[in-house]
């Protein structure tokens, strides 16, 4: 009731506050629904839509409701999960068919009276009806666990008092819980006798069944080992198929005829796309052994992909090698792969990019085939740079040695470990040891383990400070000199500065490597990429007061090992990198090259054309240097747009650089031929990634002829599908991202549903 002192202004402000709360609630529900529709939430948001009701007098929001998109019914938005359960799962919605109903939704085993909290929904919902009733038998529902499809009977209002009493209490059977299965089978028999025509699941047409099994097989093969063949015959999975009206499937079928058909379809499509291309690049990844954190014996999986001029890639094959492959053998495999793709027309292969053998195999193939440009993978180059730092930069070895002493002391000394975990639980709400590199792992050769240790120590910095300030640790220091040494280290500001410097440099290079792996840059982007790296390293030196000269020498040494003259030539010929001069012309960026790199451009272009065309190509290069490209076309090529996923600015049309040479620059006949074959080349060999579970499966089954044949076909199908949708990630990586996001998602959901008004 309003007080005498209340004013209309107070009333308006209260209404505005309530309206803002309603609007925030509405936006929260819309956000959750949008995520769910994209596959990041629960199923029922596909059918429930948040709506905002306005006050007809003031026009301000007064309530948030949920509308069923199937029957237009409107409900309170206070508890969407309960709305879905009562309206959709229990069959109240007339338009929510059994084919849409979630399989996991089974009513509770015993009929319980509805609570008083459900009164608000009774106007919209009717009690579910029972299709049959047996007075002489109390029905107990065990189908959730046993895979039976029939729903439990709903309590009949006409039941006698004794029957109602039995239905509300746990039924006692002489055989215990084991009798529930037999009782469920008895119930099903009674139901079939009462309703002989009743079907356990929806009746699907042959076309629907074939389509569903086709989609199922696509998913199974594209999972590439995440789901085993044996899982197809799992009783719960077979029960699921029966529930949705599909026939049972067998592992024999999926490993036989259906696998062969899928492989033939993918192979035919892949070969057709390669035939349509005038030229292509072969990418070869997997020569460097990657053990994924577990032992794979001596087995390597080398994947071959074909990069096409239009920017797409198609899978070609996978080769299993027994450990490390000699350079000469690798050269033979590469040449054999090219021949298998284009037969005698090997000139269609304009280059190779691989994660190994730059100095020998790739170089030899370039000498033997003058039109080829064979590159070393940029991702491998950046990862190798981290190894260079760990070997050649004294700061790395100093920090690594100190961190090893600290981590081992904390982990091994039981009293210290207990104290560490006590403060860890107090400060970070979790308990764990500091990760330490395996004793057999050379710290300077595989810095991944060292980086994990550095991250652990940095994230536990506050905990370590509390440990050494604790009275129990001071007692240890009196008796143990190693304890005093560790305490001095933890309390030394210089130690933490050096640790941060090393961690920061590794993180800098790792982030660039991850970006390269995702973006898959072309060869023209290599020089700008390394220039960006040099700039970031110089900033790092200034920030941590590190002498620049030794660090720059290490970077330059790795740059020269990875460098190829095609980097400079593609940078000059790609219209995206043209620079506007004072006269308004868009000219190639020769001023960004060193004198040696300019010579590399001339020599490479001369090598890539025939002897008769060499002079013409050189003259056209001079014309390109002086005239450049029409400003209008240059600006069109250089248009950028924001990537909706990362938010970064990217080239709007990556193919425009090549298309300009094939259209408005077609007068450059010799130089244009070189340009279109250079600027589309990929600078990384990474592509399709096998799941770790699949690699384990390969090690077990890949040594028999039949097993190897199946492995090859499954890899081809999975790789073909992933490259088709440009998915270069691994399922395990996506799962890791999901678990990392889990807390954030829960926080958002809690915010949406917290203090939800019951209107």
Outline the secondary-structure elements:
Elements: H1 8-37, E1 48-54, E2 61-68, E3 74-76, H2 80-89, H3 143-146, H4 161-167, H5 179-194, H6 206-222, H7 235-243, H8 251-254, H9 257-276, E4 280-285, E5 299-307, E6 313-322, H10 327-342, E7 349-354, H11 358-368, E8 373-376, H12 378-392, H13 394-412, H14 414-428, H15 447-459, H16 461-469, H17 471-479, H18 481-490, H19 493-519, H20 526-543, H21 548-562, H22 565-573, E9 579-580, E10 586-587, H23 595-608, H24 614-627, H25 631-637, E11 640-642, E12 649-651, H26 656-662, H27 669-678, H28 692-701, H29 705-724, H30 731-753
Parallel strand pairs: 4-7, 7-8
Antiparallel strand pairs: 1-2, 2-3, 4-5, 5-6, 9-10, 11-12
Helix pairs in contact: 1-30, 9-29, 10-11, 12-13, 12-19, 12-21, 13-14, 13-15, 13-18, 13-19, 14-16, 15-19, 17-18, 19-20, 20-21, 22-23, 23-24, 26-27
Explain what the structure shows:
With 759 residues, the chain is α+β, with helices and mostly antiparallel strands. The chain contains 30 helices and twelve strands. The strands form four sheets. Strands 6-5-4-7-8 form a five-stranded mixed beta sheet, with helices on both faces. It has a three-stranded antiparallel beta sheet with strand order 1-2-3. A hairpin with a 5-residue loop joins strand 5 and strand 6 (313-322). The protein starts with 7 loop residues before the first helix and ends in a 6-residue tail after the last helix.
């Amino acid at each position: 009731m309003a007080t005498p002192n209340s004013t209309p202004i107070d009333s308006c402000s209260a209404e505005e506050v309530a309206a803002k709360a309603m609007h925030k609630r509405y936006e929260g529900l819309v956000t959750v629904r949008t995520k769910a529709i994209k596959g990041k939430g629960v199923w029922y948001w596909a059918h429930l839509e948040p709506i905002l009701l306005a006050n007809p007098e003031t026009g301000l929001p007064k309530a948030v409701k949920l509308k069923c998109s199937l029957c237009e019914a409107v409900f309170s938005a206070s508890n969407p999960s309960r709305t879905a359960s009562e309206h959709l799962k229990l069959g109240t919605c007339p338009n929510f068919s059994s084919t849409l109903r979630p399989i996991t939704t089974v009513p509770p085993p015993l009929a319980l009276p509805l609570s008083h909290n459900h009164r608000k929904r009774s106007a919209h919902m009717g009690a579910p009806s029972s299709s049959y009733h047996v007075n002489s038998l109390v029905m107990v529902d065990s189908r959730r666990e046993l895979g039976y499809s029939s729903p439990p009977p709903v309590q009949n209002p006409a039941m006698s008092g004794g029957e109602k009493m039995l239905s509300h209490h746990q039924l006692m059977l002489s055989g215990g819980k084991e009798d529930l299965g037999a009782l469920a089978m008895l119930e099903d028999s009674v139901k079939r006798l009462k309703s002989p025509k009743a079907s356990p699941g929806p009746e699907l047409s042959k076309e629907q069944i074939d389509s569903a099994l086709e989609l199922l097989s696509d998913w199974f093969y594209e999972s590439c080992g995440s789901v085993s063949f044996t899982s197809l015959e799992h009783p719960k999975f077979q029960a699921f198929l029966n529930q949705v009206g599909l026939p049972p499937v067998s592992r024999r079928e999926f490993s036989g005829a259906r696998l062969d058909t899928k492989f033939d379809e993918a192979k035919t499509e892949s070969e057709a796309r390669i035939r349509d291309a005038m030229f292509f690049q072969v990418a070869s990844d997997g020569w460097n052994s990657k053990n994924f954190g577990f032992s794979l014996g001596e087995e390597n999986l080398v994947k071959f992909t074909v990069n096409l001029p239009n920017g797409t890639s198609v899978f070609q094959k996978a080769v299993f090698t027994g450990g490390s492959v000699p350079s000469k053998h690798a050269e033979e495999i590469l040449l054999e792969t090219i021949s298998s793709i284009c037969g005698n027309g090997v000139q269609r292969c304009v280059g190779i990019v691989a994660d190994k053998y730059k100095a020998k195999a790739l170089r030899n193939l370039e000498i033997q085939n003058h039109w080829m440009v064979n590159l070393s993978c940029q991702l491998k180059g950046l990862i190798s740079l981290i190894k260079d730092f760990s070997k050649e930069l004294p700061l790395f070895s100093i920090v690594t040695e100190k961190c090893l002493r600290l981590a081992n002391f904390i982990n091994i000394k039981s009293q210290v470990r207990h104290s560490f975990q006590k403060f860890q639980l107090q400060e970070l709400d979790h308990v764990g040891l500091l990760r330490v590199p395996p004793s057999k792992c050379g710290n300077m050769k595989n810095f991944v383990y060292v980086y994990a240790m550095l991250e652990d120590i940095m994230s536990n910095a506050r905990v370590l400070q509390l440990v050494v300030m604790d009275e129990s640790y001071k007692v240890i220091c009196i008796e143990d000199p190693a304890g005093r040494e560790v305490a001095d280290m933890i309390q030394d500001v210089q130690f933490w500065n050096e640790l941060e410097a090393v961690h920061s440099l590794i993180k800098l290079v790792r982030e660039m490597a991850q970006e390269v792996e995702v973006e898959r840059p072309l060869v023209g982007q290599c020089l700008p990429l390394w220039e960006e790296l040099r700039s970031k390293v110089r900033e790092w030196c200034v920030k941590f007061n590190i002498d620049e000269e030794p660090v720059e020498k290490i970077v330059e040494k790795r740059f020269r090992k990875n460098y190829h003259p095609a980097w400079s030539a593609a940078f000059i010929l790609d219209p995206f990198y043209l620079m506007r001069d004072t006269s308004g012309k868009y000219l190639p960026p020769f001023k960004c090259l060193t004198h040696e790199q300019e010579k590399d451009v001339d020599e490479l272009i001369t090598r890539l054309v025939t002897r008769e065309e060499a002079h013409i190509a050189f003259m056209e290069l001079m014309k390109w240097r002086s005239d450049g490209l029409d400003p209008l076309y240059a600006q069109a090529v250089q248009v950028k747009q924001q990537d909706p996923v990362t938010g970064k600015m990217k080239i709007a049309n990556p193919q425009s650089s090549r298309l300009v040479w094939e259209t408005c620059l077609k007068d450059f006949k010799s130089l244009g031929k070189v340009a279109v074959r250079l600027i589309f080349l990929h600078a990384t060999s990474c592509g399709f990634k096998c799941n770790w579970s699949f690699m384990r499966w390969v090690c077990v089954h890949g040594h028999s002829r039949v097993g190897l044949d199946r492995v090859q076909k499954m890899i081809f199908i999975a790789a073909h599908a992933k490259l088709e949708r440009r998915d270069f990630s691994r399922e395990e990586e996506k799962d890791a991202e999901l678990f990392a996001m889990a807390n954030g998602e829960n926080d958002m959901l809690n915010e949406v549903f917290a203090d939800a008004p019951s209107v």
